[in-house]
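Batch manifest line 275
LIGAND: magnesium ion
JOB: complex structure
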Amino acid sequence: MTASASVASPAPPQVLLAHHLRQLKLPTFLREYEKLAAEAAREGLDHVRFLLRLAELELIDRERRMVERRIRAARFPAVKSFDTFDFAAIPSLNKPLVLELARCEYVATHENIIALGNSGTGKTHACLALGLAACQRGFTVSFTTAVGLVHQLMEARDEKRLLKLQAQLAAVKLLIIDELGYVPLSQTGAELLFEIFSQRHERGSTIVTSNLPFEEWTSVFQSQRLTGALLDRLTHHVHILELNGESYRLKQSKARRQRDGRSAKSESAKTISTS
Ligand code: ADP
Ligand code: MG
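JOB STATUS: finished
ARTIFACT:
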């Protein structure tokens, strides 16, 4: 073997740079640096400004990726925001309070929210929007239904990993428990759920939605003592949202039917006049 054949040519700097940027977890730097370098050369930008632009792009992208990660981790059944929420449709809801809550200061101060109202009035939509706002503001969020959470807790208990699940649930900054009240809970279920509220008390924020007024919560927990203790913790620092009114879906389908009825009438009127 000749000496010259065994000498490997050094890797071009682009290859090494790509490798280092991947190791440093700077994907936007890697994706953008050539384009930005060409731009900087055209505009006569100095090195510091070129680096500054790259660093800013990386930061913006990193923030976006983190928000996306928090949204995925929250396990929302759908991503909804207040942009698509029609406040005029639900006059009982305190709009200024909701917009204030969307700024998420209550999460930092470990306050709770309870949204009460009959079915179809936008409780889930509103708490999804609050959850999304919290993800965008850097808080960890977890979304679940009361029944789903109780199932999870019972399963964890049977599999001897209850403590781990409780620790996870206590650590999340905003826990959203939707649909408390549709199904009565077993005694064990009620106690396990109570423990979650108790562990989160003054340590994290919890949003609960329910179709039942407080007076009827005993029918879910099947114990006056437990319901009292739970309400005591949950309502210590609480914002109450009232969503009472006609179901949004029902109202929309009525409006659609009326529209269809009107256009059918005008169609038949047209047919008569032209015949
Ligand atoms: P709830 O949880 O109170 O039963 P939902 O939030 O599930 O009600 O609302 C039912 C449907 O109507 C959802 O698709 C929701 O997005 C929509 N909806 C309800 N209220 C409003 C509103 N005020 N503006 C826009 N969409 C609404
Ligand atoms: Mg709902």
